[in-house]
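Thought: the user wants the 3D structure for the chain below. I'll pass the sequence to the structure tool as-is, report back what it returns, then summarize two notable features.
Action: structure_tool
Action Input:
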Amino acid sequence: MKKYLSILFLGFTLFAQAQNKISGTITNTQNEPLLGVDVYIEELHKGTSTNENGHYEIVNLPNSPIKITVAFIGYETQSKAITAQNESIVLDFTLIESVFKMEEVIISTPFNKLQSENVIKVDKATVQQLKNRGAATLIDGINSIAGVSQVSTGLGIGKPVIRGLRGNRVLVYTQGIRLENQQFGDEHGLGIDESSIESVEVIKGPASLLYGSDALGGVLYFNPVKFADDNSFNFNINQKYFSNTEGTSSSIGVKQSYNSWRFLANGTRNEHSDYKTGNDERVTNTRFKETIFNSAIGFHNSLLSSTLRFNFNNTKVGIPEEIGLQSTNKTPMLPYQDLNTKMVSLNTILFLPNSKIVTTFGYTLNERKEFEEEHHHHEGEEDHEEEHDHELEHIEPALNLELNTFSYDAKWHLPKFNNVETIIGIQGLHQKNENFGEEILIPDAKIDDFGVFLTGSYTWNDNTIQGGLRFDTRKINTEEHIVAHEDEEHVFEAIDKSFENFTASLGYKTVLFNKITTRINVASGFKAPNLAELTSNGVHHGSNRFELGNNQLDSEQNLQTDITLEYNTKHFEIFANGFYNYINNYIFISPTGEIEDENPVYQYIQDDAKLYGGEFGIHIHPHPLDWLHLQSAFELVIGEKDNGDYLPLIPAHKLTNTLRTEFDINNWLKNGFVSVNLENYFKQNKVSEFETPTTSYNLVNLGIGGEVKLSKMNFDINLNVNNLFDKSYISHLSRLKADGIENIGRNFIVGVTFKI
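Observation:
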């Protein structure tokens, strides 16, 4: 990493700043200037806003094609390609009113276009939109996107599920690099907080062409928080309170940008006690504490744009087992996990005369420690919690894993020729897993990935065709371990395996009858077996079972077909997304009926499987009631093995209805809203052989908020009530369902953000 930094800063000193400039005026169709329009250049991570005359100006541009995006609430987003060749460009925009959401550039797809221009359907939501929906945590907010669910253990532990697929089948990207934090485990969270995130993009379906192994089921792509506008300083303080857990979230952030240099830093502290169910019982040890810090420095000139980011996350989260001790203490009890993740990424774009090279180098250090009762001689007395909290600081972890990951990604965006865009690239990582605790969940191992791909896109009129081909290889080497337990030994056999895979995709976008946007995509994906699936041989206390791996597992390979239809008018929108996903060698864990170390034995096995379903919705915005929104979305997925048995942990069908009003009040409240949301979860009786059916339930949520301007003080405020009627229910994807423990009850969430 020091080598990369040296190269970066050497480049900063060698290249002089360019004098290229773009400026112009942005008006509406009545030729009235628009104040506060966002003007942004994604490649440079820089932007500005229009003044009261609708004027904008951005300087120091490269001599290479770039895209400038203009976005403003209530108007259609526009994106144009420009090339500044040592000159000043005047580019004016006339924005057309749009009653629907403001479009943004999609970063997770190869050619970074607006969603309306994309061949692949991508769902995008900003962090502010997730807050407005009443999200208690980041993963809780993503759960509100149609087709996305979560396997949860209380409020502090949640893992994404995309169309019935989870774990390593869903790849998570943050800071431009893949998240590597033993993500195959369901008993800890993502380790990503909203304070470092600007927005999230969701690709529902195989994306192995772009991302390699583990993108078989889809991708969650977290866009990091943006820098401040050119030559500006931002300071913000955010405070949130959660009534159910008596929890708090406090964060502070600063940003400073100049013409070429940009800086930001922010930190967050989250603390929650055990959550209460609808029966007013606290679920013991669902408490957690989280500390986050992230920072970034960016630079650009006529030849390159480079951003260096750092993120630190520490989470101490309890592992719940029962409804027992009723307490509002926020320090986790035994058993609990202490998780540390440190990420460094360096993203650089080198601008060539008619093309560009984009590189991303990353390093991630993940430390996972698990503390158990048998390693503690003073099991916490209920009357001495402070003494118990002090004792926890001096015990040794039973499980202590350290995962080091070095990753690289290089793409060459070739010169555009006759509406043909092409990218060639390589990706890979080197990973080392080490054990330092008494217990071993997965053995010491080394993993090497390498992939090479080619993708292209051709556009004519309202049509775009896009496709590509990729080859990947993964090598896994592990060491033998023998773990003695009383009169038994558990042996982790050494393995040396390689997995090779070809993947491809082909998509077509067109407009039927001048109204219906149609996307048809066929894509293949793969997932090589992970270390847990290959090598497990012991008690996994996070899941309360004895897990056996299978070193004879083959790679999962799938083929998915997606069809998306969208019909839009000025005040009406309807969409239908259907998919069929066939997976060869689907890996899952199944009970053997045996007992080992007083725990039920589960073993990883394979079978062919299929998943099918979709998302369907409508959005009505009736004229002249432009302040009123009526939205409805239905999502379903069915998962089956080839023998007709159902797959485990498939989310129940869900219908969501939202009534939302938007308004301004004089000059003191802007972008105000009030929303009522009804979530209908249907009975899930299509369950695997070791699951039980889940009954239906309904949840009602309320939200109100906006931007308040009082004198010289500006702040955003959100008030949400989730599960308004304090419903008692159990989600089918709750890992506490087997113990009959209910999900969270009524929760008032109040958030205030001060901006300077």
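Final Answer: Structure generated. The chain has two domains: 2-95, 115-755. Residues 1-18, 375-384 have pLDDT under 50 and may be disordered.
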